[in-house]
Design brief:
4 strands; elongated; mainly alpha; 13 helices; single chain; 6% strand; 2 domains
Length: 301
């Protein structure tokens, strides 16, 4: 048992773990530098990418970056070598190509370099998405093709352990979006044409949940929970008000039943009951979709 523990402590995995722990103390704002750099000056990793590039993931990111901007800077070392964010930088390179036909050719080059093949239908749909990317918005936001980067205090070719630890730490950090941040991103994506509906989205539709998975690194189940929390809070408000109005209406009806016919407040109470019953009828429709809840909230102000 002791021998096994010693092997683990002295292993490469443990070395990376110790480097990552040390690096986490040195991440921004302490020793890392936030900057903007021309995208062409970012060099590839010394030993290539640590995971295979997924062209469709690049396309998903390009669509979300064109809508929201680059939410997380690309991590590079002191020599401008890429440390983390190969899919994001490829998405940015794709968005830098303003001519739509040239952009499609660039995406096909990414596809061919990975050795992946798509069916004729999937390829046609992907090309249509690449053609429709909003490069103008991206180029206006990052003029001169300068994108935000995080310069880490080491050279990847001289300290590969620190580079791997930084990549791991950066990827883990990407998953720490709070529920409030997810809801804020969801609203911005809805404004950009992303939709949320039951069932599997069509290939031509921009799926809100899938985009949030790509951006945040969270699972689809967790994204579903985060979005539903927005509806749950709204539903609680709907049913709390309905319960209160129902209780008041019962008291008002009891007053009308017991009060003398000539009571001066009877007409006012009757008018109130008419208004309250209309409001209660609206609340009892039990809004379930995001749009229905939003409509309720507008009328309840």
């Amino acid at each position: 048992m002791a021998k096994r523990i010693n092997l683990l402590v002295n292993s490469g995995a443990a070395e990376v773990g110790r480097a990552q722990s040390k690096l986490s103390e040195n991440l921004p704002p302490a020793n890392a530098l936030k900057s903007d750099i021309h995208i062409s000056k970012i060099k590839p990793r010394p030993k290539g990418n640590t995971r295979e590039l997924n062209p469709l993931h690049v396309l998903d990111l390009a669509e979300s970056i064109s809508a929201l901007g680059l939410l997380q800077p690309i991590a590079i070392d002191e020599s401008n070598q890429l440390v983390a964010g190969e899919h994001r930088i490829e998405a940015c390179r794709l968005l830098c190509v303003e001519d739509a036909e040239v952009r499609v050719s660039h995406w096909r080059l990414i596809l061919s370099q990975t050795g992946k093949t798509l069916s004729e239908k999937a390829d046609r749909e992907a090309q249509k998405r690449v053609f429709g990317l909003d490069s103008d918005t991206f180029c206006n936001q990052y003029q001169g093709q300068k994108i935000p980067v995080l310069v880490l205090p080491f050279k990847a070719d001289e300290d590969p352990t620190a580079a791997l630890a930084a990549e791991t730490a950066e990827n883990e950090k990407r998953q720490n979006y709070t529920k409030a941040e997810i809801l804020n991103l969801a609203n911005r994506l809805r404004s950009a044409g992303y939709i949320e509906k039951p069932g599997r989205p069509k290939k031509t539709e921009k799926s809100l949940k899938n985009a949030l998975v790509v951006i945040s690194g969270k699972s689809l189940v967790q994204i579903h929970r985060d979005l539903n929390s927005e509806k749950t809070l709204s539903h609680d408000r709907v049913f709390s008000e309905a319960k209160a109005i129902d209780k008041i209406c019962r008291c008002a009806q009891s007053f009308l039943d017991l009060a003398p016919k000539n009571n001066e407040f009877k007409k006012d109470v009757s008018d109130f009951l008419m208004i309250a019953s209309k409001r209660l009828s609206l609340l009892n429709k039990k809004p379930s979709t995001h749009d229905e809840v939003g409509e309720y909230l507008k009328t309840s102000k």
